[in-house]
Amino acid sequence: DAKTTQPTSMDCAEGRAANLPCNHSTISGNEYVYWYRQIHSQGPQYIIHGLKNNETNEMASLIITEDRKSSTLILPHATLRDTAVYYCIVRGRNAGNMLTFGGGTRLMVKP
Amino acid sequence: EAGVAQSPRYKIIEKRQSVAFWCNPISGHATLYWYQQILGQGPKLLIQFQNNGVVDDSQLPKDRFSAERLKGVDSTLKIQPAKLEDSAVYLCASSLVSWEAFFGQGTRLTVV
């Protein structure tokens, strides 16, 4: 699996958009970008995933660059409950592919 | 829909003792994962099952850790003997489709 690089921590003001970047310059053509988050004392939670097109769901938007070497997770209106560690993962689509977490970005949403 | 169940939630043992964790995945989920999460780090995959079979266990310290998934449903993870560095949260997850894994609350192990 390709490795990812994320900032260690970020702050965001409540109500503003939180933009979390991820670099995955060695991603291969059949690998997807997945985002999970982990709120304190809970297990990780799936957010969104994509291959090359931008994706949006009720939780977030995922913007993937045209060369697929980086992506950004956008939380459009961050709330205090979005304070968590956000993990960017690159992984093949098959269920047999390993789900490997890195260090993630610790997002602190401040009032 | 019931989530992934893990037990116990907390466990304190002395070094060199043995311990077992239990996981009941979401019904019908073929893929089951065990992770170790040390404080301040991301979860580290220990073993991944697809039904009864092991997909990957390259990060499982096999001299002391073992895991099994009987009948492709419940799973147990065992540590024998435990070391101080095994203190961590042990997370179980399951998935039906490849992109969304559901995690349990975890078992917090303290080895003293």
Can you lay out the helices and strands and say which pair or pack?
The complex is a heterodimer of chains A (about 110) and B (about 110).
Chain A: E1 9-13, E2 18-23, E3 31-38, E4 45-50, E5 55-56, E6 61-64, E7 70-75, E8 84-92, E9 105-110
Parallel strand pairs in A: 1-9
Antiparallel strand pairs in A: 2-7, 3-4, 3-8, 5-6, 6-7, 8-9
Chain B: E1 5-7, E2 10-13, E3 19-24, E4 31-37, E5 44-50, E6 53-56, E7 65-69, E8 75-79, E9 88-95, E10 101-103, E11 107-111
Parallel strand pairs in B: 2-11
Antiparallel strand pairs in B: 1-3, 3-8, 4-5, 4-9, 5-6, 7-8, 9-10, 9-11
Helix content of chain A: under 10%
**How far is the first residue's CA from the last residue's CA of chain A?**
37 Å
Biggest pleated-sheet summary of chain B: 7 strands, mixed
Helix tally of chain A equals 0
Beta-strand fraction estimate of chain B? over 45%
Which radius of gyration of chain A do the C-alpha atoms yield? 13 Å
As a percent range, the share of strand residues of chain A is over 45%
The average pLDDT score of chain A comes to 93
Give start-end ranges of low-pLDDT stretches of chain A.
none
Please name the defining characteristics of this protein:
heterodimer; A: 111 residues; mainly beta; 5-stranded mixed beta sheet; 4-stranded antiparallel beta sheet; B: 112 residues; 7-stranded mixed beta sheet; globular
